Amino acid sequence: MRNKKNPLMNTGLPSLLVIFIVLCLVTFAVLSYVSAVRDYSMAKKTAARTQLYYEADLAANECLTALDAGLRDVYEALPEKKEASFFASCQEKLPDLLENLPELSPAKDANTQLPGCTVGQDGIIPLCTFYETLNDTQALMVELAVRFPEDDSSPCYEIRKWQTVSIGTWEIDDSLPVMQERP
User: Fold this and answer.
1) Contact (Cβ atoms closer than 8 angstroms) between residue 135 and residue 167
2) Domain membership flag for residue 40
3) Is 114 a member of any domain?
């Protein structure tokens, strides 16, 4: 007897294997494309956020420079270069110095409550806090303590805080009914 092989079986199995491999490759290509688009949009958001941060950082540094120059003028105007008289004079003149700072960025949203510049005290050391707006929900907060200058080149302040803080009101989103009560 003659042993015959079916020619359809020889060509059918390799064809199915090729189709399966092509489908796998197409699936991986689509997944890679979707992942690349998501990464690109995240990179754009991160770049925009970083640019906003550095713009606020630059504005805060300009305020620091102006404040340091004002504090240096207060120090130079003192008849006696003593720490206690410097702190007392700074506490008295700090609100006027803060009014002359470069304009701080206003809140970009009417609902955002941004405190602006505040003056406080830690014992005898005057404190100053100001904010630079990043976006509708965040601001750069800078808290300074006035410092008695050690020499002519040292700054008249010490940075206590330089951080991003949340501003405005937070609204809870409870529009998605996760758990439903049954009667």
Assistant:
1) no
2) no
3) yes
In this structure, are residues 167 and 112 in contact, taking their beta carbons and an 8 Å threshold?
Answer: yes
pLDDT digits (tens, 9 = 90+) for 68-93: 888 888 888 888 878 888 888 888 88
Answer whether residue 27 is part of any domain.
Answer: no
Number of domains in the chain: 1
Question: What's the order of all strands across the beta sheet hosting 118-122?
Answer: 118-122, 125-133, 138-146, 157-166
> In this structure, are strands 138-146 and 157-166 parallel, antiparallel, or unpaired?
antiparallel
The number of residues in the chain equals: 183
- Domain of 56, in residue numbers: 48-166
149 found inside a domain: yes
Query: Nearest-CA neighbor of 71 among 142, 162, 158, 163?
Result: 158
173: left (phi over 0), alpha (psi -120 to 50) or beta: beta
Mapped onto helix, strand or coil, the DSSP state of residue 139 is strand
Of residues 111 and 175, the one with the higher pLDDT is 175
